Predict the structure of Programmed cell death protein 10 dimerisation domain-containing protein.
Amino acid sequence: MKDKYTNQAQQNVSGARSNPFEELHNAFAAAEQSTPGISDVFVKELFRRVAPHVSRERRMHGIMDRLKV
């Protein structure tokens, strides 16, 4: 999916080519730098809302461990 959309980068207001995945990565990096751990909180909240049956603490820790690079 990333490769599909990377090649179809959109143009922003200034006319420069913009990569939405790079922008999202940069936004998360900046948020994580200013508030360490905020990305984990965001992903946990996302799972709680999208898949409430997965939000049990033990199961959530397993999922979060697999997501970390």
The CA atoms of residues 22 and 39 lie 16 Å apart. The longest strand covers residues 10-11. Strands lie at 10-11, 17-18. The chain is about 65% helix and 5% strand.
